[in-house]
Write a structure and sequence with these properties.
Blueprint lengths: L5 H4 L4 H4 L8 E11 L10 H4 L9 E7 L5 H9 L3 H10 L4 E9 L2 E8 L6 E12 L4 E13 L2 E9 L7 H14 L15 E7 L9 H10 L3 H4 L3 H6 L3 H4 L34 E7 L8 H4 L2 H16 L2 E10 L11 E9 L8 E6 L8 E7 L10 E6 L10 E4 L4 E4 L4 E5 L9 E9 L4 E5 L3 E3 L3 H6 L16
Parallel strand pairs: 1-2, 7-8
Antiparallel strand pairs: 1-11, 2-4, 3-4, 5-6, 6-7, 8-9, 10-11, 12-13, 13-17, 14-15, 14-18, 16-17, 18-19, 18-20
Length: about 475
């Protein structure tokens, strides 16, 4: 269950393993972070945490935090404005052409999902939800937040949990996890439950401890780096042997020192009067959906059920998905919390179910604040268009869906169309007077995602504004977030 791989036993060699050539299909790198931040403010820099200096960049970043400070005043402020942790990760990743696709916050639990810009039109069916388990299920200090989506047609789910604390509550932690798995559902016919997804990543402060062994033995194993001597007494490993739900989840070797509990601003384990025993409370696991069994004779009596099983088997064979863990370790240099952050780097090897965006769009002619402008778009495949679809104008390097300069309702502002090409009007009053490098994004309300992004184009400076000597802060159409 905890077999050690060469890549995991020599973390410093992980970059070489990430350079392996794909054998079949396309490969994507997923960087998962879990960190209990103990209500502290973020550090100045997360370069090491995100491996931003790595020669091979991640395609997706999934960041799960626990115990983000959620005092009443701060929590209300974070609901209105971006919280400081989200702000730090966004400002670190946006210059590298990553976009925040989705986020979910439940009190102290925070889950962030970032993607390289090139993948954005192929990330669809995005939904996020939460489940409380603290204090009879009414308080959000414990529980789970999740984000699910379709990535090139493959259903993925990311689940960030904070489970019950203390040594004696191992069974309660499993009960909470089963409750979360049972309660969380999505408005998606193909994958309404977490276990219906092709691949699930489960991570967080799961709070499982090391039992049986005394403090002296545990610390001796840590000092000698003989971590494997502790694995048989790790509660999660023990629970996996008897809990069917846990047995479907895989985990790399715990070949790094326990991540809890440290004195603040140090690498020393708890020196307080409680002297809590070190433990691997912070974990990252994954689950591939078991391959569908072949239809049996009973299914043959139900033609609908039989047909669905055959269809699922054919799809799994035609569009394979494989996952490999390349690194599983803690990042010891961060000492602001009593937990060390843990990262897992994975390679997804899959065959894309589609590689063409649903919509192609572009800016028509020259754009500036002096003239009304046109967007031209063409549906490349059928999609569920609605009156709530819109096209947004974004600066190159935008950080999230809400980071638009302006937007126009597709149906309301349509000026010409035929079956293949549509034109949509954008008022000159909405275009930034100082111009800049921009892109257009088509947002499909039904699918709740961007389904097409234009090539970058230049919005020209307004000649009228220059001639009249207007200052940028006295003009319409450019908000302060885009005045740099």
């Amino acid at each position: 269950m905890m077999e050690e791989t060469e890549e995991q036993s020599h973390p410093h060699q992980f970059e070489d393993s990430l350079k392996e050539e794909p054998r079949d299909g396309d490969t994507f790198r997923v960087h998962v972070v879990t960190w209990n931040v103990a209500t502290i403010d973020p550090p100045d820099d997360v370069t090491s945490l995100l491996h931003l200096n790595s020669p091979k960049s991640a395609d997706l970043y999934v960041i799960g935090l626990q115990e983000v400070y959620s005092g009443p005043v701060r929590f209300v402020s974070d609901m209105i404005f971006e919280d400081s942790w989200t702000g730090l990760f966004t400002s670190s990743l946006t210059p590298l052409q990553y976009v925040k696709v989705s986020s979910m916050r439940m009190q102290g639990l925070l889950l962030l999902f970032f993607s390289k810009l090139e993948h954005i039109p192929f990330i669809r069916d995005i939904q996020a939800t939460y489940t409380r388990t603290g204090i009879c299920g009414y308080w959000g200090n414990k529980g789970a937040v999740s984000i699910r989506l379709s990535f090139y047609g493959h259903m993925l789910c990311f689940l960030n949990c904070h489970l019950a604390a203390h040594m004696k509550y191992a069974s309660e932690r499993v009960d909470e996890f089963e409750y979360i798995m049972d309660r969380q559902t999505f408005d998606c016919r193909k994958a309404p439950r977490i276990t219906d997804h092709r691949l699930v990543f489960w991570f967080g402060d799961l709070n499982f401890r090391i039992q049986d062994h005394g403090m002296h033995f545990v610390r001796s194993c840590i000092n000698n780096q003989t971590y494997n001597l502790l694995w048989s007494s790790d509660q999660l490993i023990m629970m996996k042997k008897k809990e069917p739900l846990l047995q479907d989840f895989e985990e790399g070797a715990l070949d790094f020192q326990p991540t809890y509990k440290f004195d603040l601003n140090s690498d020393n384990y708890d020196s307080s009067s409680k002297k809590r025993k070190p433990a691997w409370t912070d974990r990252i696991l994954w689950r591939m959906r078991p391959k569908a069994p072949p239809p049996d004779e009973q299914d043959g009596n139900d033609s609908t059920l039989y047909g669905e099983k055959i269809k699922q088997l054919d799809k799994e064979d035609e569009y394979p998905l494989k996952v490999r863990q390349d690194l599983y370790t803690s990042i010891m240099e961060y000492s602001i919390s009593d937990h060390k952050p843990v990262i897992g780097i994975f390679t997804l090897e899959l065959r894309k179910m589609y590689d063409t965006p649903l919509v192609r769009l572009q800016a028509e002619g020259d754009w500036s604040a002096d003239i009304d402008s046109l967007v031209v778009y063409s549906p490349l495949q059928p999609f569920p268009a609605s009156t709530w679809d819109w096209i947004g104008l974004y600066k190159v390097g935008f950080s999230s869906l809400s980071d638009y300069i302006t937007y126009t309702w597709v149906k309301d502002d349509e000026v010409a169309f035929n079956e293949e090409v549509m034109q949509v009007f954008v008022s000159k009053e909405e275009i930034p007077v100082r111009g800049g490098e921009c892109v257009l994004c088509y947002y499909c309300s039904t699918l709740q995602c961007i389904i097409g992004i234009s090539e970058p184009f230049k919005v020209l400076e307004s000649r009228v504004a220059i001639e009249e000597g207007l200052l940028p802060d006295k003009t319409v159409g450019l908000d302060k977030n885009h005045s740099e």
